[in-house]
């Protein structure tokens, strides 16, 4: 079969779907359709088109016999279907790319290594710097807060800095904690001017501690940074207090 004959067979899918082929032509096309995935897909797209064309061609008044669509109309229909299928394929590919990107973020989580283009040549990748050893709260929030208050407890020697910012929902806080050893479980408590209390955040302190400059443990030399939120308005808070879970006060910081 020549290329021209093959093309004409493919073009017959529209006429076949509309039922305007004669018996011999329909039989020949059905034999071709059995082994042609392209025409099978085209036939699915044309499914239900015959009633629609009949409705469009039928003028008001008594029903009359449907006039078969012209070859030009059939060609236009085939072209339109091809365009629609191409657009659908592009949308599907774009959706798959987005799903793959989202999956990479979810699977990687906080331990994912982010790659960036290196300065020593195009197309080469290098690992991003290691994340902050304790918490991203320092880089993301603490240094951007305009109001910070500090205190050191004379007995425990624990030092705390509390940064606060007013939010529509209450008060956002970031705590910097130094010179604290564990193992401990602690909370940052906001105390209102009326004496009401609200836990802002809680965390665990490992046995080697946080913010101890002369510690032999590398991670212990870094302060602890932890952020949280209180429903209280920032103007309602009198002070903050770092307490252990058994109620011992480590340090008190004025708001």
Automatic annotation (TrEMBL):
Q: Does the keyword Secreted apply?
A: no
Key word Plastid present in the record?
Answer: no
Ordered alphabetically, the record's keywords are: Membrane, Transcription, Transcription regulation, Transmembrane, Transmembrane helix
Q: Which domain of life is it from?
A: Bacteria
User: What are the transmembrane regions?
Assistant: 95-118
Top-level taxonomy = Bacteria, Bacillati, Actinomycetota, Actinomycetes, Kitasatosporales
* Protein known as: RNA polymerase subunit sigma
In this protein, which residues make up the domain named Putative zinc-finger?
9-40
């Amino acid at each position: 079969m020549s290329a021209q004959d093959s093309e004409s067979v493919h073009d017959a899918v529209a006429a076949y779907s509309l039922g305007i082929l004669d018996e011999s032509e329909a039989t020949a096309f059905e034999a071709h359709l059995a082994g042609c995935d392209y025409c099978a897909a085209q036939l699915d797209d044309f499914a239900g088109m015959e009633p629609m064309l009949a409705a469009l061609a039928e003028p008001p008044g008594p029903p009359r016999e449907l006039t078969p669509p012209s070859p030009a109309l059939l060609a236009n229909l085939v072209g339109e279907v091809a365009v629609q299928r191409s657009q659908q394929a592009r949308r599907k590919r774009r959706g798959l790319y987005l799903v793959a990107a989202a999956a990479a973020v979810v699977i990687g989580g906080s331990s994912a290594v982010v790659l960036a283009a290196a300065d020593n040549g195009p197309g080469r990748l290098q690992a991003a710097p290691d994340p902050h050893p304790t918490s991203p709260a320092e880089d993301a929030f603490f240094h951007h807060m305009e109001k910070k208050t500090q205190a050191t407890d004379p007995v425990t020697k624990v030092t705390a800095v509390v940064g606060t910012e007013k939010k529509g929902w209450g008060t956002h806080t970031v705590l910097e904690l130094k010179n604290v050893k564990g193992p401990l479980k602690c909370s940052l408590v906001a105390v209102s001017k009326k004496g009401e209390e609200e836990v802002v955040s809680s965390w665990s302190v490992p046995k080697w501690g946080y913010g101890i400059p002369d510690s032999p443990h590398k991670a212990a030399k870094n302060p602890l940074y932890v952020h949280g939120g209180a429903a209280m308005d920032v103007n309602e808070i009198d002070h903050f207090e770092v307490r252990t879970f058994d109620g011992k006060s480590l340090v008190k910081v004025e708001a």
